[in-house]
Every structure is written in C-alpha cells, then in structure tokens.
Design brief:
The complex is a heterodimer of chains A (about 70) and B (about 250). By secondary structure, chain A is an alpha+beta fold. Chain A is built from two helices and four strands; from the N terminus they run E-H-E-E-H-E. In chain A, strands 1-4 form a two-stranded antiparallel ribbon. Chain A starts with 6 loop residues before the first strand and ends with a strand. With about 250 residues, chain B is an alpha/beta fold. Chain B has ten helices and eight strands. Chain B has a seven-stranded mixed beta sheet, sandwiched between helices. The longest helix of chain B is centred in the last third of the chain and has 19 residues, at about 180-200. The chains are: A alpha+beta (about 70), B alpha/beta (about 250).
Chain lengths: ~70, ~250
Amino acid sequence: MEKQQSVVFDIERCKGCELCTAVCPVDIISMSEEINSHGYHYAEVKEQKKCISCGMCATMCPDVVIEVYKEE
Amino acid sequence: MKKVAGYPDSLTDKQFHYCPGCTHGIIHRLVAEVIDELDLKEKTIGVAPVGCSVLAYEYFDVDMHEASHGRAPAVATGIKRVHPDKFVFTYQGDGDLASIGTAEIVHAANRGELISTVFVNNAIYGMTGGQMAPTSLEGQRTTTSPFGRDVKEAGFPIKMSEMLTELDGSAYIARVSVHDPKHIRKAKKAIKKSFEIQLEGKGFSLVEVLSTCPTNWGMKPLDAIEWLKNNMIKTYPLGDLKTPEGVE
C-alpha cells in the first residue's frame, strides 16, 4: 500500500506548540480549527501537493508527531 | 514512497509528558535515532536523572535505570564497570548535572569512565517550578531571582562543559543547540560522535544541548526558541570543545 500523502501528522500526539509552522520552507503548515482529545489545536497540512518532503517539520517537532515520505 | 522521517525504533509508544514546545522531546528523538543508527538498542543501558526528564525510562525502549538526584554518572560508572560490553549513557538536566550532581560528573569525567552523557541545559529548574539554576543567565528572571540574577550575590552562569575539558579523563566534550533544523542536525552528529567515542573506548564523552523551557521562562514556544538563540548562545558558545586526537 502506497501512501498518497507526503507528510502525515499523528494529531493525537500534537501539543500545538507551532514550532513546525515556523520552519516549513513552503509555509503550508497551519493549526487546526478543531482540537484533539487533549484539547490542543493540532498542526495540519491542507495542500499536500505543495510539500517538498524536506523533513524540516519532523526535525523540529518535539513530540515526534510527523512522518515524511518522499517519492523515489 | 520512501519514508524520510518518522518514529524511531528506540522510543516507546508512550506520549512525552513534556510541556508543549519543550525541546526535551527533540533531544529524546535524537538520542533514539542515534541508538537506531548505531544498532545499539539491544546493548544499551541508560540512566535517567531527576528533573523534568525523570521519566526518561518510560520513553526510551532500551534498558534503563533511575538514579537519585545528580548521581546518574556514579550509577552509570557501576553499570559500565560490571558490564563493559554494554553501551551506557546518562541523560541529565542542568539542575541535576550542574548543581547537586557537580561532584559526580566531575569525578566520572576525571576517572575517564567509558560512559556518554547527554546534558540538557535550559538555564532553569523546570520540574520544581522555575527556580534559578547555576546555569541561569546573568539578569535572568526566575521565581527565586524576580529582579534578575545578580552575579554578585548568586555567582556566574556555570560553564560545565568548559570545566570538564580541563580534565585529563574526558575525551570528547561538545556544546550544541536545538533551536533550528540545521542545529538539530549538528546536535545529532555530536551525540553520534560521543556514542562512538565510548564504543571505541576512548574515554568519557559529554554533549551539552542548549534547550528551552517555555513554561518557566514564561514565553510561547516560538519566543522561547528566539530567546535561546539570542541570549543563551552568547553565554554558552557552541562547538566541539574537546576532541580526542585522530577524531574529526
């Protein structure tokens, strides 16, 4: 099974610190309107196509929320 | 699609209890990634400290031991001497390593114990509620220095890494930061080098990682990252402070 998304967020682990939003070079990470079960607005990417799979967000994330995939 | 970043094998599934934006989580991930890359998972014994990272044993999926406050290097010494074939590391904060545990770290380094230490310096006591630490910066406001740290009264920010470089037993001492992806990659490299130095039997190694404490600094996580970059690095300059001969 191939993943269609380039970047996947485990939203239940996200604490909404926003560190990932500041390092994204294409500026596609935003905070959700909804909250997760811990009450945090989680990070999300709405325009997956714009993701360049650089992995900066995953490098910066303190809660290991983000998985990044790259086309081979 | 190829996975380029994800969850390291050497971390358990448990969610970190750290505050939002606390960089302990980044440093945990880096240590776990290095353990994975060096294929050390089955031979690693870690020693957890007292402080915010007291529950580190819940997060690393390796054998872990808890030490009383500041005594992680002494416990690690015992473990390493009984099991010289194992890889032993300690994970300590600044209240643990630079205050109550100063004697233990200095003597472990001086004896050249074959252990690796990850020293997380966030310039404050986190778990107990933001009191001034020996590492707090000059003029830094904390709950016990509400008008800023007065160096005439409380002394100067203690530079543990520089102190330890003077000891003949220490092999590798470095200071890194985790305020942006570039520095995080450098930090991982330093942690890897420190672990390799233990595996090669070269001596004691320590990596000091400058870290944030948004909650007790009273800042938003992104502002805390800026504060680290603009203030802490001036007092605690980054780089390899001591490297053994023949190691790049």
